[in-house]
Amino acid sequence: MATTSPLAPTASPPGDEPDPLAPPPFTPLRTERLTIRPLRPEDAADLHRLVNDWEVAKTLARVPFPYPRDLADEWIASTRAQMAAGQAWHLAITGLEGAGTAEEREVLVGCIGLTRDAAKREAELGYWVGRRFWGHGVGPEAAARIVSWAFAHIDVDRLVASALVDNERSQKLLGRIGFRDAGEGVRDFVARGGPMPVKLFAMTRADLPAPPAAPAAPAPALEDAPGKKILLVAACALIDGDGRVLLARRPEGKPLAGLWEFPGGKVHAGETPEAALIRELKEELAIDVAESCLAPFAFASHGYEKFHLLMPLYLCRRWSGPVTAVEGQALAWVRPQKLSDYAMPPADKPLVALLRDFL
Ligand SMILES: Nc1nc2c([nH]c(=O)n2[C@H]2C[C@H](O)[C@@H](COP(=O)(O)OP(=O)(O)OP(=O)(O)O)O2)c(=O)[nH]1
User: Fold this and answer.
1) Could you give the strand order of the β-sheet that contains 245-249, starting from the edge strand earlier in sequence?
2) With a 6 A CB cut-off, is 255 part of the ligand 1 pocket?
3) Dist CA 178 CA 77 (whole Å)
4) CATH annotation of 29-207
5) Residue 125 to residue 116: CA distance in whole angstroms
6) Ligand 1 contact, 251 CB (< 6 A)
7) Distance set, CA 76 to CA 16, 39, 40, 132 (Å)
8) Which of 22, 50, 259, 296, by CA, is between 20 and 30 Å from 343?
9) ipTM score of complex
10) By C-alpha distance, which of 331, 328, 325, 329 is closest to 244?
11) 345 CB less than 6 Å from ligand 1?
């Protein structure tokens, strides 16, 4: 168990505004055997039974022991508000008992949570699994899923976690899903009545396991360049009547998931950048753009670990059809001065500065 799955409600700071970058309502996540979903009032009795267990509570920093039954109700109620405000996501891990039989039913297995520190652009991972579900790989399955979700949906650059110094199982789990050692510290453990030494862990988007290779990737246009291959990507800043620029969020499962980008994509073999962009804008946003409405503006040339990106950026003020998130990606119309509030791939930084000055 990682230490900080706070099961005692924490008050929201007074006057806290909902964050405009807060994600939309949480859609349950599925793994091979588990579902991760918001806690419901009717989970309280099971939650209480599982967490009111010294073997579980002793590994968790903010969980009292014994755990009062009422606290389970209060805690579950508080998780809704925290999630709506984009401050924390404390979720149920459930599984199916008697899967495939007439007696199939959903059971609460444990909880997993992320608490965001907006100023540091990081979130802390915490989780626990009920004792009767130990030894089945529930922790790594749920934690790997939520970590992938977090980088794609919450505005964070880093996840952190901690585990008691003698909790080797949890430390190994964190290592397996991409966390790196980040030293040692001390945390107050409510159930232990005081401070305890912990190991600290951290991971960035770059530590996520690589997504499975895309089937038959289109051939990059400049394949024979020595050294790293040059990847040609065409991108576009769509500008609306109010001078706002459209950014799209890279979806979970793609490299750089969760970062905001200019719509566009790879130039396929035999395509011009303009033709590629017209195709991508149709595929991703369901809009029709005429080549004459694409004005070349600037380009990015950036060395990523595995390839060198060459990305012409076009400006476009005219298109037909309503802009639609065809692939379910988050979209944002952003004022030029606010572009730097959105975390973007490193290649885009110079483009953002140019665009801000130009618009
Ligand atoms: N579209 C776009 N891509 C960007 C930007 N900045 C940046 O570094 N990139 C990088 C991320 C990717 O490595 C690459 C674009 O590739 P992609 O995989 O998203 O392209 P695609 O839409 O053709 O995707 P796919 O069909 O191959 O999944 O360019 C940007 O602002 N817009």
Assistant:
1) 260-261, 245-249, 331-334
2) yes
3) 32
4) 3.40.630.30
5) 9
6) no
7) 20, 6, 7, 22
8) 296
9) 0.95
10) 331
11) yes
- CB-based contact 333:260 (threshold 8 Å): no
The CATH number given to 229-358 is 3.90.79.10
Tokens 């453990």 belong to residue: 189
229-238 and 307-316 strand pairing: parallel
Ligand 1 binding pocket includes 139 (Cβ within 6 Å): no
Q: Which of 266, 281, 310, 339 to mutate to test the pocket of ligand 1 (most atoms within 8 A of CB)?
A: 266
Q: What is the pLDDT of residues 267-280, one digit of tens each?
A: 999 999 999 999 99
How many whole angstroms from 234 Cα to the centroid of ligand 1?
8
- Under-50 pLDDT residues of the chain: 6, 8-20, 221, 223-225
Round to whole Å and give the CA distance between 263 and 323.
11
Domain boundaries, the chain: 29-207, 229-358
> If residue 183 lies in a helix (H) or strand (E), which one and from where to where?
strand 180-189
Q: Tell me if the pTM is above 0.90.
A: no
